[in-house]
Amino acid sequence: MKDMRAASFEPTNVISRYKWQDGLGYYESTRDAATNFFFDSLPKGTYVFEYPLRVTHKGNYSNGITTIQSMYAPEFTSHSEGVRVKIGE
Q1: Are 16 and 27 in contact (CB under 8 A)?
Q2: 32 Cβ partners below 8 Å, 6+ apart?
Q3: Within 13 Å of residue 83, how many CA atoms lie on the same side as its CB?
Q4: Distance (Å, rounded) from C-alpha 29 to C-alpha 65?
């Protein structure tokens, strides 16, 4: 899964590591414009992934989409919708 970030958001945790949350183990890899999540298996269900971000500039930004794709069957893919993020004073 690849979670794209808006231009003004910077992650506070930049160290890639394996994490365990709500019975699901995954590897979290933070990159410049996105955070990638890698799963050995992903059981059917609904999951919420959260990670802390810091706002660096005010303005109106386009938040990126989140895409999930199977490594072994890339025809199975899905994505979220993009949203606008307005950061004021």
Answers
A1: yes
A2: none
A3: 7
A4: 17
| DSSP H or E stretch at residue 87 | strand 83-87
- Whole-angstrom distance, CA of residue 4 vs CA of residue 44: 23
Strand-strand pairing, 77-79 and 66-69:
antiparallel
- Per-residue tokens: 26: 């995954």
State the residue for tokens 């990638």: 36
Closest CA to 4 of 63, 68, 72, 77: 63
* pLDDT of res. 22: 84
Question: What's the CA dihedral at 11, 43, 64, 14 to 10 degrees?
Answer: 20
Q: Give per-10-residue mean pLDDT for the chain (89 aa).
A: 93 93 92 93 89 93 93 94 90
